[in-house]
Amino acid sequence: MDRWGEDAAGIRPSALEQGDNVITMFDVIGEDWWTGGGVTAKRVAAQLRAIGDRPIEVQINSGGGDMFEGLAIYNVLREHPQPITVKVMGMAASAASVITMAADTIEIGAASFLMIHNCWVVAAGNRNDFEEVAAFLAPFDQAMADVYAARSGQEAKTCARWMDDETWMSGSMAIERGFANALLAADQMKVDETAKASDREANEVRAMELTLVNSGMTRAQARARIKSIKGKPDAADDKATPGAGSTDWMASAAAVLDSLRA
């Protein structure tokens, strides 16, 4: 997510108008508690129903997120009866790379990236607990390796090795390895500075939440701590929060993180 925030945030299609058969995925995969957004299987299924029995274009720039939601979206797209073209506008990492594999045709920018790796979870306990977690994750890693292998033509064990190494593939490498079909024309992409700033701020909040969870807090405790500093102004189910829109919270957030790291 840090790499997405630095390298791919704010990349959007350059066209001023989008066709009515285009689905954009410029967000985390899964429900985003902080913004009320996120790419979910439910929302993608609703968009597909609205578009109807027509070819689909999916534009992706996402650092990933919930692997289970990514697999669900992959299956929803695979069920669509018409051809699907995915365009990787900036990055399709982690769960977003799984979604990308649902396409009949994949176009990727020369300076865009696909990233594949094993599932991640936050766990605590003794060695027996960790052995149970490892056993729990194994079939999901295998499922992702099978998805990558089916799309690329590579062997599943080769894909599993790349996942073990957390492999980043540039546009040309993705094409060479069978993960994409063609390069995306550079003039189809631009950097939207407003979107870039918004993407980065949301990414900072998510990173802080994960740091707090890794420090021993529950997710609910982490969210309460961050909300007390920043507020949660954009979430769909909240009223406006005092101080919303101010960036002063970032200094306080940095102090919290420095304290935790120390």
Automatic annotation (TrEMBL):
GO terms for molecular function: ATP-dependent peptidase activity; ATPase binding; serine-type endopeptidase activity. The keyword Cytoplasm applies. It comes from the Bacteria. GO terms for cellular component: endopeptidase Clp complex. GO terms for biological process: protein quality control for misfolded or incompletely synthesized proteins. Gene3D superfamilies: 2-enoyl-CoA Hydratase, Chain A, domain 1. Keywords: Cytoplasm, Hydrolase, Protease, Serine protease. Transmembrane segments: none annotated. NCBIfam families: Clp_rel_HeadMat (NF045542). Belongs to the peptidase S14 family. PANTHER family: ATP-DEPENDENT CLP PROTEASE PROTEOLYTIC SUBUNIT (PTHR10381). This is ATP-dependent Clp protease proteolytic subunit.
